[in-house]
């Protein structure tokens, strides 16, 4: 006998039926999904457009080609930029704009995918999408730069400058520049449109150094700096610097919105170096002609120091108040032996004599006299000192700047280095003569040369003859020596002047020539023979009279006796 079927058995059978139905549905859906995938393939969803170009239903390659052709004209259309009524054109390619055709197609749905959303999009109406556009930021900045120069205005920082001892300021000014972020977005939106026109977006640009920073720089540094001199003290030697001297060395540069003081260290070192000796060696004071008048040139201490210490000390000093603008600088100091005070005591204040001689044109005379004047000029004789031409000028060699010329040797003219320097000796002798200085050593030429004053002239020869005179006054003597070179057909001149405090008025007399001696005739066969027409020798006396300035009484007198030998006639064979 069969048992009746229970309720659980019936439920179990029903569950199997439902499961079978569900499985059947899954199979049907899967088959449809596979069919949809196979039919859609990698095509762009139907009805899709990118920037107005229809690419729906096309394979990615076909879509890219269609998109490139469809956008070519619009992609090349220049932008029109406007600002303040002015118009500029901008080439998109130059500005870094470019359509990414492949990425545009990919974003539109081109390409195979099992994603049901993509399959759904393919079989429904596609979207109208924007193209994917790449922008090269650097290229855009370069392309916009010329336009920005035309329409923009750079912000101007406040500035402080120093002109001499004056403080000169420039007020800050707000600028105007293109807002590059906003411009990029605007250009991207206008790109590929029918009328790619963009109004340039401009924004205000604030200066880095504003009004407040400028006022602070003037009040805290610039005005105090120019308020008075500062003194740097090296040992016992103060170096006083005036605003007109150090003003051009100062500047103020912008740093983090403020104006920071700077000093040109090299120029400051030069300025300080003008007041101290070079290479740490002291320099004695002296007297020099400046604009035709004697002027004391101050002594300079020899100083060795760190330029950085000077700059730091200087920048500290210039902001201090009056009465507190002197500070010592760490340094090694050597004081000069002859101080500025010593130079002032020389009382070199006026011209006490001057004398000029002339010479016919000869290049060697220009060279030798010019070099001798260069070495003598500026010599200062202290009271009691003796001047030596040979010691001052040195040996007449090519290395010392001299050339060959005619000299007198054994009564005739021969060539030798330094020819013509005796003209300087004669001119110096006469300047010394009329300054009233003491004649120590002088030797007239062996025979008389008519361009020199008779009985008042001198010759020199290295190692044999010298011109020496002593400053026997209580004042210093400055020697000024100048040469005006000769030219073809024209004379040259030598002028020597003495500067001191006048002690004597000098007068002189010259006797008639007497005791004449006739010349001889020499016949020479040497290569260095130079013919000469001789003339007689003679004797002459010159007297120098010393009077006090402005008085008639002769205090003393001095006689100079000269014997000239004949100038022999020379015949060359």
TrEMBL record:
It comes from Nocardioides abyssi. This is VanW family protein. The chain crosses the membrane at residues 17-40. Residues 126-195 form the YoaR-like putative peptidoglycan binding domain. The keyword Repeat does not apply. It comes from the Bacteria. PANTHER family: EXPORTED PROTEIN, EXPORTED PROTEIN-RELATED. Keywords: Membrane, Transmembrane, Transmembrane helix. Pfam families: PG_binding_4 (PF12229), VanW (PF04294).
């Amino acid at each position: 006998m069969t048992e009746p079927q229970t309720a659980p058995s019936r439920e179990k059978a029903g569950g199997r039926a439902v499961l079978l139905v569900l499985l059947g549905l899954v199979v049907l859906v899967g088959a449809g999904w596979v069919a949809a995938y196979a039919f859609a393939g990698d095509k762009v969803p139907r009805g899709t457009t990118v920037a107005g170009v229809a690419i729906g239903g096309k394979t990615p390659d076909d879509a890219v080609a269609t998109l490139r052709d469809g956008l070519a004209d619009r992609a090349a259309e220049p932008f029109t930029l406007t600002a303040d009524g002015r118009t500029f054109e901008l080439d998109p390619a130059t500005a870094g704009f470019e359509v990414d055709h492949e990425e545009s197609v990919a974003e539109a749905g081109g390409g195979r995918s099992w994603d049901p959303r993509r399959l759904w999009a393919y079989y429904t109406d596609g979207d109208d999408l924007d193209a994917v556009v790449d922008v090269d930021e650097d290229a855009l900045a370069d392309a916009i730069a010329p336009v920005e120069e035309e329409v923009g205005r750079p912000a101007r920082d406040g500035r402080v400058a120093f002109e001499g001892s004056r403080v000169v300021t420039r007020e800050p000014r707000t600028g105007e520049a293109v807002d590059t972020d906003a411009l990029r977005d605007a250009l991207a939106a206008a790109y590929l449109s029918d009328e790619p026109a963009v109004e340039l977006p401009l924004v205000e640009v604030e200066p880095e150094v504003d009004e407040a920073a400028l006022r602070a720089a003037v009040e805290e540094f610039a005005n105090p700096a120019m308020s008075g001199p500062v003194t740097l003290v090296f040992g016992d030697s103060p170096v006083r610097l005036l605003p007109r001297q150090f003003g051009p060395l100062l500047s103020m540069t912008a740093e983090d919105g403020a104006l920071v003081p700077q000093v040109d260290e090299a120029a400051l070192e030069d300025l300080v170096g003008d007041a101290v000796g070079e290479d740490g060696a002291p320099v004695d004071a002296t007297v020099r002609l400046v604009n035709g008048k004697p002027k004391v040139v101050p002594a300079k201490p020899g100083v060795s120091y760190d330029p950085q210490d000077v700059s730091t000390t200087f920048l500290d000093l210039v902001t201090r108040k009056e009465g507190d603008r002197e500070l010592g600088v760490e340094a090694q100091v050597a004081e000069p032996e002859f101080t500025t005070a010593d130079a002032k005591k020389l009382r070199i204040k006026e011209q006490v004599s001057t004398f000029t001689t002339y010479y016919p044109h000869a290049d060697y005379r220009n060279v030798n006299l010019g070099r001798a004047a260069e070495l003598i000029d500026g010599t200062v004789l202290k009271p009691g000192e003796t001047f030596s031409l040979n010691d001052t000028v040195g040996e007449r060699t090519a290395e010392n700047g001299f050339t060959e010329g005619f000299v007198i040797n054994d009564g005739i003219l021969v060539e030798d280095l330094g020819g013509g320097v005796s003209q300087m000796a004669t001119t110096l002798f006469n300047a010394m003569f009329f300054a009233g200085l003491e004649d120590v050593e002088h030797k007239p030429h062996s025979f008389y040369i008519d361009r020199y004053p008779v009985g008042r002239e001198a010759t020199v020869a290295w190692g044999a003859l010298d011109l020496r005179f002593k400053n026997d006054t209580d004042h210093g003597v400055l020697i000024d020596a100048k040469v005006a070179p000769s030219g073809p057909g024209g004379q040259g001149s030598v002028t020597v002047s003495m500067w001191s405090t006048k002690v004597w008025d000098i007068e002189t007399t010259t006797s008639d020539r007497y005791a004449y001696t006739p010349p001889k005739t020499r016949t020479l066969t040497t290569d260095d023979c130079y013919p000469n027409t001789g003339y007689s020798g003679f004797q002459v006396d010159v007297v120098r009279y010393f009077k006090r300035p402005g008085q008639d009484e002769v205090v003393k007198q001095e006689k100079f006796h000269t014997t000239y030998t004949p100038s022999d006639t020379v015949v060359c064979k």
